[in-house]
Amino acid sequence: MALKLLKETDPRFQWLGWRVVVFGVTILLTLSGLAAVIAFKQGLFVSKTRLHFLADHGAGLLPGMQVRFSGFRIGVVDKVELTEQAKVQVDLLVESRYMKWIKADSTAQLLQEGLMGDYYIEMMGGSPAQQPLKAGGKVNFAPAHSLADVAYDLRSRALPILDSFQITMDYINDPKGDVRQSVANVKQLTAELQQTRARMDALLVRLDSTAGTVNARLPRILDRTASSLASVESAVRDASAVASMVRGAVEESVPRLPSIVRNSDDLVRDSRDTLQGVRRSWPLNTMLTPQSLEPPLPESRR
Amino acid sequence: MHWESAAVSWREALTAYQAIDDWEGQGRARLGLADVLARLGRKTEAENNLFYMTGQGAFSRLLRARAHYQLALLAAEKDREQAGRWLAEARQLCAPDCAHVSSFDNLEARLSAARADWGMVERLTTGVLARHEVVAAERSHALRLLAETQFERGELVTARASIIQALTLDRELAEPEWLLEDYTLLGRIAAAIGDGVEQKDAAARIASLCRGAKLAGCGR
Predict the structure, then answer these.
(1) Whether the predicted pLDDT of B84 surpasses 50
(2) How far apart are CA B157 and CA B202, in angstroms?
(3) Do A272 and B2 touch (CB under 8 A)?
(4) Cα atoms found within 13 Å of the Cα of residue A138, Cβ hemisphere only
(5) Is domain B1-96 given the CATH code 1.25.40 in the classification?
(6) pTM here?
(7) Is B125 on the interface with A (CB under 8 A)?
(8) B174 touches chain A (CB under 8 A)
(9) Residues B193, B161: contact at Cβ < 8 Å?
(10) Please, which residues bridge with residue A122 across strands?
């Protein structure tokens, strides 16, 4: 009774049924248009070609995933299912206009956007000389390396290096090891070289005094032989010969044998260890060239 | 005294190499020791060291070739035929790419000169002089032998030129004995030419050398 009274008297409720119908239709049309636009944007009205590939594992492969080529979206994953051979078959829908880039040797790779982003299929490769793949064709598949895979790979590569480094450091730091002994031998060699240098200096001082004596005697020789220029020249040559002879005597007085050989007692005791250690120890094995103990060939005139 | 010290060092090296079973090192040490012993006049000891090497197959062919050569040098004065045999074996062991061929040729030329086989001496010494890599000592020896050959054949001018070249090298090498040999030959050539000044000069130099060094040839 009351509603009937309102309907009849309030002008705002006139044609109320029609108004509801028109509003509902408008909303419906708007939603349909929006859905059509979205569907168009999603490529529902674009001609597509179906391709597929087989994967060993289905992790990360989901229907609706994007298929990309050079970073651009060219299709979607339509279906992911397990085959009778326990493989994962993945069907792709690739927009037909992009099929010219998908060749028989193209590879589909499962990639991830950033470290935590979505997975997508990236189509790669494809020789220009190859024909585009036909509908229903099969592409190769390369699974993605997850962070765990990369970490495992890195670990498997790094561990032997770290172990080797540790062993090497232990070997080097061993006070009784070859390297320490080699370094001690090199130090000893250096000390002996310094001694030899000191002896050489002393001998050179003697050589200087000898040369001084020669120089002191030279004017008298020149006086005696001043009568001819040729004689003077000969005297100078003789002085040179004397100096050369003294030099030769000095050189001969220095032991020619390597000190490591002269210290034969130590060498005999540690020879094998030392030689093997030096041979194995980098960088000593590249720095220390073996000293040749080559005896001079006697002249045929001796 | 220096040679005594060198002999001690070579003996120590030999002992050390024997202790580590290094036969190449032993061989080199024996060769060096034999050379020093020969310079000290202990030729029998030197020969014993070298004899051991000739009969021991553990030494390389090259080391054994050098041992034969040094034996030939030791025998060159007293037994030339034996020296020739040692030298022939040295050549055989050192072949085919022998680095010591100039020394071998000069020694053979020296043995040939003792037999007055001047044709052989000329062939060998000119071969040595034609090589580029010959050390100064061997070059001067070849020149001295060639000068002697030319002198014996009466080619006095070329003989004088050859011995002057040898003298130039030997002055640099400063070996008194070699200088004495050179000046002795120069004196003989000068006498044959009739150059009294040069002969007198050579005699003066020989006297000087003999005063400065105790040489075996000075008493001759």
Answers:
(1) yes
(2) 16
(3) no
(4) 6
(5) yes
(6) 0.49
(7) no
(8) yes
(9) no
(10) A68, A109
Which among B175, B70, B68, B162 has a CA at the least distance from the CA of B122? B162
Q: Do A301 and B178 touch (CB under 8 A)?
A: yes
**For an interface test with B, which of A192, A203, A301 has the most B Cβ atoms less than 10 Å from its Cβ?**
A301
B141–A257 C-beta distance less than 8 A: no
B5 touches chain A (CB under 8 A): yes
Calpha distance B148→B155 (Å, rounded)? 10
User: Is A157 within the bounds of a domain?
Assistant: no
Amino acid letter for position B124: L
pLDDT band (50, 70, 90) for residue A232: very low
Contact B171 A256 (CB under 8 A): no
* A113 secondary structure, DSSP code: S
- How far apart are alpha carbons B63 and B18 in whole angstroms? 16
Q: Do B9 and A301 touch (CB under 8 A)?
A: no
| Cβ contacts of A295 on chain B, cutoff 8 Å | 10, 28-29, 31-32, 35
* Residue A283 shares a structural domain with residue A196: yes
Domain extents for chain B?
Answer: 1-96, 100-220
pLDDT tens digits, A149-198: 777 778 888 888 888 888 888 887 787 777 777 878 888 888 888 888 88
Looking at chain B, which residue has its C-alpha nearest residue A253? B2
Contacts 24+ apart (CB under 8 A), A113-120: A115/A147, A118/A65, A118/A66, A119/A60, A119/A61, A119/A62, A119/A65, A119/A144, A120/A65, A120/A66, A120/A67, A120/A68
B214 in contact with A, Cβ within 8 Å: no
Of the pLDDT bands very low, low, confident and very high (cuts 50, 70, 90), residue B73 is very high
User: Which chain B positions have a beta carbon within 8 Å of A244's beta carbon?
Assistant: 171-174
Burial environment of residue A73 by CB neighbours within 10 A (0 to 12, 13 to 18, 19 or more): middle
The third-level CATH classification (topology) of the domain covering B100-220 is 1.25.40
Q: End-to-end distance of chain A based on CA atoms, in angstroms?
A: 154
State whether A189 and A139 are in the same domain: no
Count the domains in chain A.
2
Biggest CA-to-CA distance, chain A: 167
ipTM of this complex prediction, to 2 decimal places: 0.88
Judging contacts by C-beta atoms under 8 Å, the chain A residues touching residue B137 are: 299, 301
Contact predicate A93/A75, CB 8 Å: yes
**Are residues A274 and A199 part of one domain?**
yes
Sign of the alpha-carbon dihedral angle for A166, A168, A173, A176: positive
Task: Spell out the residues 6+ positions from residue A145 whose beta carbon is closer than 8 angstroms to its own.
Answer: A153
How far apart (Å, rounded) are the C-alpha atoms in residues B139 and A291? 29
Reply yes or no on whether the pLDDT at A270 is more than 70: no
Of B3, B12, B138, the CB nearest to A299: B138
What residue of B is the nearest CA neighbor of A273?
B20
